[in-house]
């Protein structure tokens, strides 16, 4: 671990310490690290619009307790990392771009792509002096992780993917309700933002494990930590302008575990199955009752599966 990077206690977790890392490409990433730096490292990559605090503390602590050093970070354009300050240029074309994306046609006009976000991860590992680590990516973070594993094979020892996709053409589309809420105009008032978060988790979360009060508390915490809806649109454009990841999947050689929720109403389980099929010798686990979220009920099972997969 780079001794020149100064960590301080995280205000969001008693298990983690935080720091700002300048990648040298115009981007600064805000990171948190927990556990013994001498232990094998797991780097966590969150999905669309998700700040690092969306990785539950209980999940991070479970991995730390199983002998790992855990690092989570805000992707560019989200949380306390660098923001792209320009207005999204193609937001009024989202539906047509999604239609093109679903059948494998190319889109253009994003300020950056998932490949640029994968390069951020490669640079972050270099800046932290981490020669090799394990990787877990969730949703869009899983898309980024697929590119990282293929593009930087020497940096990634094993790969874990959680409710993600490789965006190959003709996969089942997200549910209409889920999609409309995710691309709808972002509110500006705190109460409206919290209400929208509750609505979203009710339709993408694990159906029998929706805790409205916990969702409200988390949404309020995320709002005060950083609220930047343009970043969400930029990241969505990055997905739409990157397209299919099949070419990257076919290059991945690392042992890979793909986990998907049987009740995922945002990315139906077939998305996870095709990822596992595309990556050589990947293992696939379908979790009954789990949606597109990480509720406390599933954390012992999820952390156990990943820890077992990452053990030397």
From TrEMBL:
Which InterPro entries does the UniProt record give?
A: AB_hydrolase (IPR050471), AB_hydrolase_1 (IPR000073), AB_hydrolase_fold (IPR029058)
Per the UniProt record, the source organism is Acinetobacter brisouii CIP 110357
Q: What is this protein called?
A: AB hydrolase-1 domain-containing protein
Q: Where is the AB hydrolase-1 domain?
A: 41-294
Q: Name one GO biological process term.
A: glycerolipid catabolic process
Note the Pfam families from the entry: Abhydrolase_1
Any one Gene Ontology MF annotation carried by this entry is: triacylglycerol lipase activity
């Amino acid at each position: 671990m780079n001794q020149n990077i100064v960590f301080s206690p995280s205000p969001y977790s008693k298990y983690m310490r935080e720091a700002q890392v300048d990648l040298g490409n115009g981007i600064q990433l805000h990171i948190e690290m927990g556990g013994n730096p001498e232990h094998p490292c797991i780097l966590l990559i969150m999905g669309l619009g998700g700040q690092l605090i969306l990785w539950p503390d209980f999940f991070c602590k479970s991995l730390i307790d199983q002998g790992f050093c855990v690092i989570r970070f805000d992707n560019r354009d989200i949380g306390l990392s660098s923001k792209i300050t320009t207005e999204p240029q193609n937001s009024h074309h989202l539906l047509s771009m999604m239609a093109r994306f679903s059948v494998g046609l190319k889109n253009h006009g994003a300020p950056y792509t998932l490949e640029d976000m994968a390069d951020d991860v490669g640079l972050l590992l270099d800046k932290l002096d981490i020669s090799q680590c394990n990787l877990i990516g969730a949703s869009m973070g899983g898309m980024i992780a697929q590119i990282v594993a293929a593009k930087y094979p020497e940096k990634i020892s094993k790969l874990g993917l959680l409710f993600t996709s490789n965006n190959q053409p003709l996969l089942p589309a997200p549910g209409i309700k889920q999609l409309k809420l995710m691309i709808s105009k972002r509110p500006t008032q705190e109460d409206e933002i919290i209400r929208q978060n509750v609505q979203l988790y009710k339709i993408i979360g694990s159906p029998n494990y929706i805790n409205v009060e916990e969702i409200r508390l988390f949404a309020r915490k995320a709002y005060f930590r950083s609220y930047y809806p343009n970043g969400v649109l930029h990241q969505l454009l990055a997905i739409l302008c990157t397209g299919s990841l099949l070419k990257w999947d076919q290059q991945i050689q690392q042992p890979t575990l793909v986990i998907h929720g049987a009740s995922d109403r945002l990315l139906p389980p077939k998305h996870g199955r095709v990822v596992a099929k595309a990556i050589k010798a990947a293992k696939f686990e379908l979790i009954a009752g789990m949606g597109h979220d990480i509720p406390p009920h599933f954390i012992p099972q999820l952390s156990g599966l990943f820890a077992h997969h990452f053990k030397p």
